[in-house]
Amino acid sequence: MINSRLRSLIRKEFLQIIRDPRTMALVLVMPIIQLLMLGYAATNDVRNVPMAVFDQDRSPAARRLLDAYRAADYFLIAHDAGSEAEMRDLIDSGQARVGLIIPPNYSNDLQGNGTAVVAFVLDGSDPTIASTALSAAQLIAQQHGTQVLEARLARRGQAITAQPTIEVRTQVWYNPDLVSAYFMVPGVIGMILYAITSILTATAIVRERERGTIEQLIVTPIQSWELIVGKLIPYVILAFSNIIEVLLLGRLLFGMPIRGDLSLILLLSGLFLVSGLGIGLLASTIANTQQEAMLTVFMTLLPSIFLSGFFFPLEAMPIVLQWFSYLTPLRYYLTIIRALLVKGVGFGAIQGDVVALALFGLGIMTLAAMRFRKRLD
Known about the structure:
A 5-stranded mixed β-sheet has the order 2-1-3-4-5, with helices on both faces. β4, α6 and β5 form a beta-alpha-beta unit. The chain is built from 14 helices and 5 strands. The chain is an alpha/beta fold.
C-alpha cells in the first residue's frame, strides 16, 4: 500500500505536470508527431514522380506509351514540354524529376519490324528517386513493348518471340553515378544552419534571463533592437564558418561538386539564417529555462527533418504531408542548396523557392522580434 505522504507527493507532481502546458505538449503531442512522421514520412516507396514529356511524334502509339507510364502510378505526367531546352529548364528548377523524349519517327519504327527508341532523362541529384525511376521506366517500357509485340504477332498469326520493340535509352544528369553523398552533404548544411541558429540563439538569450544579466542589459542605454542584433550576430558568424567548413570537407572527403556561384550560395544561406534565428528568438520568448528553450526548438526540428526532404523523398509521402511540408522553411533551402551545388543552376531556376524562403524569414523574424521587445518591456 502507498502511504499518505507518498500519495500526496505523487498527486503534487501530477498537478505540476498538468499545470505546465509545455510539459503536457511534450508528453502528449510529441509521440503523435513521431508516429505520424515515422509512419508516413519515413519511406522510400516513391510514387507520382513529376515527369516532363517532349513528344515529337504526337501519334496514337505515343499516347498509348504515355498511358502506360501514367497507369503504373510511378510517374505523374505534369508537364508537356515543347522542346528539349524547356524540358531541361523544368528539371533544373525541380518542377520535373524525369523527362521522356519521344522521337518524331516513334510510331513508324514501332509499326515496322525494328525497335522504337525513346530517351529517358533523370535528375540524379536525389539518388533514391533516380534509381527508382530508372528501374520503373525500363520495366514499364518493356511491358508495354511486349504488349505491342503480342498484338502485332497475333494479327500476323505468328508465334511470340523475345524481340524487344521499345528500347529506353537512359541518361542521368548532374549525378551520373548516383552518389548518395551529393544528396546528403547539402542536407547536412541545412540541418547545421537550423540547429546552430535556432538552438543556440534560444538558449543564449534564456541563459541571460536565468542569470539575471538581461535585466542589467535592459537598464543600460542600449536599445532593444541593438540587443537583438548583438545577440544574433555571433551565431551568424559561426553559422557561415560551418557552411565553409562543411563545403570544404564535403569536397575533400566525398568529392562533392560546387557547380553554382559560391557568392549566391552564401547569400541565400544567409537568407535561410533569418528563419533559423527567428525560430530561436521566438522560442526564447516562450521558454523560461534553457531546457524549455531546447525542447521548444526540438518540437519544430523533428517535423523539419522529415518534411523537408532531408532523409526521405517528398514524392514518397502522402499528399497531406506534402502540403504540410510547404510550412517548413528547411524544405525550400534544401531545394535551393542542392540545385546550386549539384545542378549548378542560376537564380532564375530557384526564384520561387527564394521568394518563399524570404517570406518565411521575414514573417518569423518580425513576430519573434515583436514578442521579444514586448517581453523586455
